[in-house]
Amino acid sequence: MIGLGSIAIAFRTVFVSGMGWDAAFESYASLLIRPIDPATTSLQQAYDIAPVDSEFYGVLIYQVVDGLRLILFQADEWLSFTSTETYLWIFAVNAAYAVIGATALAAAVGYAMKSRFLGLYVWAFVLATPLFIGHASMNYKDMPVAAGVTMVTAGLIFGWTMKRPVAGWCVTLALVFPGSLIALGSRGGAIVLVLAVIVGSTVIWLLSRRWGALIRVTTSSILAVFVATVVILWSNPIARIDPLAWIPASIDRAGSYPWNGPIRMNGVDVISIDLPWWYVPVWLLAQLPLLTLSMVFATVLFAGWALIKSRPALPRADLVPLVPLLLQAIVVPIVIVASGPVLYDGLRHVLFMIPALVALTVITIRALIGLTITSSGIKGAIPYLVAAIVTLASFAAVVRWYPYQYAFLNPIAGWDKQHRNWEVDYWGLSGREGVTALLEQGAPLVQVLPNGDSSSLFGGTRSREVIERWPAGAWQYGIYSYMRWENYLPGFCERTIEIRRDGILIGEGGLCPPPVEIIQSEMRPQSP
Predict the structure, then answer these.
(1) Exposed, middle or buried by CB within 10 Å (0-12, 13-18, 19+), for 163?
(2) Which of 108, 124, 302, 372 has the most CB atoms lying inside 10 A of its own CB?
(3) E strands present in 323-468
């Protein structure tokens, strides 16, 4: 029920606030990219057509949306970037990616552990994680990568665990191929993540000397990645022009996106091009529910216990199939951070680690089952009670922060509610709620800050249109400001609304005098 509840919330969020700042821009860019003729366009010409690095993002999700509309409704025209329907479709498909990835991973872990209960635990816990299910509804660039890599990991676990060679081949191909397709269809540079998990798992599994399983998993997964790459290169007009130039450029751009700006975390502004090593760990400590963090720490202890000396409660052999999870959750993110990439907006660029990290906590539940297997009564029920409590606590966090699950901060990170200690760009999705509330209070026009030109995404009015559309005789209009870059509701406005979750201020809005002063002075930093 928890997993189903999380799915319902994810899809409901699509209709409530599921539109990122870049949604209209990227959708418009896809309409410029998809008609490019590779036969008559050079790679540099294609780069010039695609605005601001959009040449390195995939167009698969737009192709999937238009394909579904063609199949279901015989709609043969591409959706317009100005249509609300476009974004409902895009984020519904994005949420479906997340559910499919979580389901594949849960099935693989349950099969490897020979326990339906443990599989259901992983399924519910991953889906009930605020960061994961929150991004499912609004992050259409990083969630496909996370879901795709997770499907690849699931395919590797199945392929390694299955005893029948043909079944192992088929299941690995059936998961690694679409997983690679979805990941590469969002970011071409994601091929590094996919190959890192596959190659890393192969290297570690060499120690087991299970040659049949190793050959089966490696060959089938590499074949799946190769075919998926060919499909992506063929379906992406820019990539098809010169694959040997486009792939390395995509990989390079994935780690060095040209944005130099501040990210506030724990009251400190760090710069995207010069991040401290603790950037990712601190965001994890802030955005995972406290009981989830406790499970992660317990998992480290139990896994170390099993590796140092295998115990009947948690045999070392039970950990071997989970090697791809370890790589996806810990090893690959550490390598990425060590390489000094440009990261911003919290954990969005390493979102792929979240489902694997949460799934690894199955080790703790498995160890508790082993320790209490001969017990009865309350002691025997401890593993199942722990699983239920931590999953329910995570789901409660999702419910409390709805529809801003992606912005969740646990009580320790959010203890100081008077100061703005954490900021991410995606908090701007609260603009729809803010605009709606101010319109209901009688504001004829509403502007969203700090980027006034994005107001129309949320039903508001762009900066340059406010004065032009200012109704004669009106004396107030609305401004909604979300918490980013020292931005506040201007002092000459009367605050009438606040949007908070767990007491933490996400945004504020109010009614303001005629707009001349704010329009003339509103040269705020622009959202990346």
Answers:
(1) exposed
(2) 108
(3) 446-449
Q: CB–CB of 144/181 below 8 Å? A: no
Asked if residues 232 and 60 have their Cβ atoms less than 8 Å apart, the reply is yes
DSSP annotation of 208: G
pLDDT per residue rounded down to tens, the chain (528 residues): 777 888 788 778 777 765 666 777 777 888 888 888 888 888 888 888 888 778 888 888 888 888 888 888 777 777 777 677 777 888 888 889 999 999 999 999 999 988 899 999 999 999 999 999 988 888 888 899 999 999 999 999 999 998 888 888 889 999 999 999 999 988 888 899 999 999 999 999 888 878 888 888 999 999 999 999 999 999 888 988 988 888 888 888 877 777 788 888 888 888 888 888 899 999 999 999 999 999 999 999 888 887 777 667 777 788 889 999 999 999 999 998 888 888 888 888 899 999 999 999 999 999 888 888 777 777 778 889 999 999 999 999 999 998 888 889 999 988 887 777 887 777 777 888 888 899 998 888 888 887 766 777 777 787 767 766 666 556 678 888 887 767 778 888 889 999 888 888 888 999 888 765 544 444 444 443
Give the SS3 label for residue 262: strand
- Collapsed DSSP state (helix, strand, coil) of residue 121: helix
| DSSP state letter for 320 | G
Tokens 């570690």 sit on residue = 204
Closest CA to 487 of 527, 444, 436, 438: 527
The pTM score is 0.89
Q: In this structure, which amino acid lies at residue 330? A: I
Q: What is the residue whose two structure tokens read 């760990």?
A: 281
